[in-house]
Design goal:
By secondary structure, this protein is an alpha+beta fold. 41% of the residues lie in helices and 18% in strands.
Length: 334
C-alpha cells in the first residue's frame, strides 16, 4: 500500500502543479511532487522483493503478470523522465520532449494502477495507520526530502541547466526573444490560418461590438511570464489593450456579470473572473514585434500569474457572462 499511496501523491501533485499559477503555492506543490517521485526510488528495493513473489503467483488478465510488468516499467519511465527534465535534459528527442513522455506515461500509469489494485484486491489495513506504519511513512518522506534536497544542491554545484529552472519546474526558452519561444498548442488545438484584413473580434456585454486588428493595437503593456505546462517559460514585454479598457471603450462598464469568456478561433476557451479584467491584456505584439501566427496572431490573451493554458491564442470573442469563473473544467478539453 505504501507504493500505491506515494504514487497517488505523486500523480495528484503533478496535476495540481499544472493548475497552480501562484509562485509561492506552486513551489510547494512541485517540491512535494519531486519528493514523492524520489520516494518511489527509495521504495524500489523493498518493492522488488514483493514483485518477484507476486509474479510467481500472478495469473493472466487485466490484473495479472503482464499488467504488473508494464506498470513497473512505466513507473520507472515516469520517474526517470521527471528527473531528466529537472536536471535539464528537456529535449525534444525525435520530436518529443521529456515532459511530454513524462506526462503521457503518467496517464497510462494511472490506468494501470487501477487495474493492478483491482486485480490484487488490495484494501487498506488497520496496521497501515498504526504507530509503526506512521513511523515508516515519516522515515520514507524524510528520506525522499533529503534525496530531493541533495539533488537540488548537486545540480547547483555542478551548474546543471536544471539548477535555474522556475519554481514550476519550467526551463527558460526565449526570454525577450519570441523567435526562440516554442510554438505549442493544447492537445488537439492547431494553428489557424487568419486573414488579418478580414479578422473581427466580437466583444459581447449586453450588446455586441466587432473590432478589427487596428482597434486592438493599443498602448497598454505588461511584462509577464508565459509559463507553459510543456515545461518551458519566457518573460516578455507584451503590448495591446487591457481588457477593462477594452470593455469600457466599447460596450461600457458591465453592470451585470461575474466572468469573462475568452474564446479562440479554434473553439478553445477559458473563463476568468471579471474582477481580473484590469490585469488581463489582449496582446497584438511581443518584445516590440507583431505576434507570429504560432504565438497567437492577430491577438492573444496575456494572463499574468496563470499557467500557459489560460493564455488563449487567436482570440475571436470576449463575452461577459453571469456564470462563475470556476464553473468550467479545470483543464480545457480541446
Amino acid at each position: 500500500m505504501a507504493a500505491l499511496a506515494v504514487l497517488g501523491l505523486a500523480m495528484a501533485s503533478g496535476v495540481l502543479a499544472f493548475a497552480t499559477g501562484s509562485e509561492a503555492a506552486v513551489r510547494v506543490v512541485v517540491a512535494v511532487h519531486g519528493i514523492a517521485g524520489l520516494c518511489l526510488v527509495l521504495l524500489t528495493p523493498w518493492k522488488a522483493v514483493i514483485v518477484r513473489r507476486g509474479l510467481a503467483k500472478a495469473g493472466r488478465g487485466l490484473g495479472g503478470r503482464g499488467a504488473s510488468v508494464a506498470l513497473g516499467a512505466l513507473v520507472l519511465l515516469v520517474v526517470g523522465t521527471g528527473i531528466a527534465h529537472a536536471v535539464g535534459a528537456t529535449g525534444p528527442y525525435l520530436g518529443v520532449t521529456t515532459m511530454q513522455v513524462h506526462v503521457g506515461a503518467a496517464i497510462v500509469v494511472g490506468v494501470l494502477v487501477l487495474l493492478h489494485a483491482w486485480g490484487r484486491h488490495q484494501r487498506p489495513r488497520h496496521s497501515d495507520l498504526g504507530r509503526r506504519g506512521l513511523l515508516r511513512a515519516g522515515a520514507l518522506a524524510g528520506g525522499g526530502a533529503l534525496l530531493w534536497s541533495a539533488t537540488e544542491v548537486a545540480a547547483g554545484a555542478v551548474s546543471l541547466p536544471g539548477a535555474d529552472r522556475r519554481a514550476t519546474g519550467s526551463h527558460e526558452r526565449g526570454t525577450d526573444d519570441p523567435v526562440r519561444m516554442p510554438v505549442t498548442q493544447w492537445l488537439s488545438d492547431s494553428v489557424p490560418a487568419v486573414d488579418a484584413a478580414r479578422f473581427r473580434l466580437e466583444v459581447i456585454a449586453g450588446r455586441t461590438v466587432a473590432l478589427g486588428v487596428s482597434d486592438l493595437d493599443g498602448s497598454d503593456s505588461v511584462r509577464a511570464v508565459l509559463d507553459c505546462t510543456g515545461g518551458w517559460y519566457a518573460e516578455q514585454d507584451w503590448r495591446g489593450v487591457r481588457l477593462d479598457h477594452l470593455l469600457a471603450e466599447t460596450v461600457g462598464v458591465p453592470e451585470h456579470g461575474r466572468s469573462i469568456d475568452v474564446v479562440s478561433l479554434t473553439g478553445y476557451r477559458r473563463r476568468l473572473p471579471l474582477t481580473e479584467a484590469s490585469s488581463l491584456l489582449l496582446a497584438t505584439s511581443v518584445a516590440a514585434r507583431p505576434l507570429s501566427r504560432g504565438h497567437g496572431a492577430p491577438v492573444r490573451l496575456v494572463a499574468p500569474g496563470r499557467r500557459g493554458f489560460w493564455w488563449v491564442k487567436w482570440v475571436a470573442r470576449i463575452e461577459v457572462v453571469d456564470a462563475p469563473w470556476w464553473l468550467q473544467p479545470p483543464f480545457p478539453g480541446q
